[in-house]
Amino acid sequence: MPVRNGGVSFWWQQVGLPSPADRLDGDATCDVAIVGGGLTGLWTAWYLHEADPTLDVRVVEAEFAGFGASGRNGGWLSSELAGSARTYERVAGADGVERLRAALRGTVDEVVGVAAREGIHADVVRSGVLTVARSEAQRQRLDGELTAAQVAERIRVAGAVSGHFDPDCARVHPAKLVSGVARAVRERGVRIHEGTRAVRLEPGAVVTERGTVRAPVVLRCLEGFTAGLAGHRRDWLPMNSAIVVTEPLTPGQWHEIGWSGQELLGDEAHAYCYAQRTADGRIALGGRGVPYRFGSRTDVDGRTQDWTVESLRSTLTSLFPSLRGIGLDHAWCGVLGVPRDWSASVAYDPRTGLGHAGGYVGSGLTATNLAGRTLRDLVLGADTELTRLPWTGHRVRRWEPEPLRWAGVHALYRLYRAADRREDAGLLRTSRIASLADRVAGR
């Protein structure tokens, strides 16, 4: 049976694709206009309205709430740092990095708590994440506390030589989470103008294809779709990530691979993979396909390349040889926002009323909530622990123009894959090729 490809994501196909609602019909005014109906925009609207219910907050979304990465990701509600520790350390020192890490750990509990209070049934299990090393070079980078035998007690990953377990992570169903947050936001009285594409932002106004929303506060929360706005083509690079999901595994297959818990699974490769055991007994596994489309082009309804599907199938059977021949039900892709220094930022200028949050480099499911609470404090003029985190006000240079951008990104991932091949072949240290790739990337 052929693999279903696209259709936004498997997650949305499971719950049912929504039709855009409450399209903007002409000009409007409000107190806060948020551009982007993903989790960054939705959480920001949630916390602003919670702090001040008198605020007229509106969200402008080109498709439907959760159409982008918020409804396509791997379902890792993780405390992983959304960016480079070295970058944040230059701004705020080691203490600042630790404060950001602690805030992200606390945010895992915040999201789980809000979901429980609001009746958002998103298959949430606070199960932790197991990261494995499958070569000596990976073992040195990971510096994990688990031996190969201890890794196998959790999940029998072929070739695993060590591992690290982080309890501060929860598994979620992305579409159930984002649709639940959107529902809760609407119930608070926030209007989400779906099917309304913004084309330009300026102080005091969001210009869309269906009218202009005027507001003293305008917040850009578009993550990987930022490049679609006039004047923002080179701000953040829309990087592609692809996922496949298997048919349901049999009890015997689960027993064979030893994955009896609900922990998430990742590896320490440079071109890394990430996986979850879904609530309905499948494996969803993601990784990098074609990393970038020329000219910062973004979405084609989630469809990914056939060779990417086969590459992910190969990764799956490399991890679990006993699953060779298992059917894949669905494949899709989405874009994440990557700043030039690979580090996220949250910012607001009270003089212009313009703000933004994003650039999570693939670690956004938790960071979106923390960013939303930080934007709330910045907009309301509050000086809090959140507004003093090192990503607040972080500035970074723009990406290079084309064709340098396209050539550089594709060369970057060729280097990472070459480094992985050398390490898998027995190199006893991290490949110098990967170090070169890091310098090219600006990490």
From TrEMBL:
InterPro entries membership: FAD-dep_OxRdtase, FAD/NAD-bd_sf
Signal peptide boundaries: none
Gene Ontology annotations for the cellular component aspect, listed alphabetically: cytoplasm
Domain of life: Bacteria
Residue ranges of domain FAD dependent oxidoreductase in the record: 31-378
Pfam families cross-referenced by the UniProt entry: DAO
Protein name per UniProt: FAD-dependent oxidoreductase
Species, as recorded: Nocardioides ganghwensis
Lineage of origin: Bacteria, Bacillati, Actinomycetota, Actinomycetes, Propionibacteriales
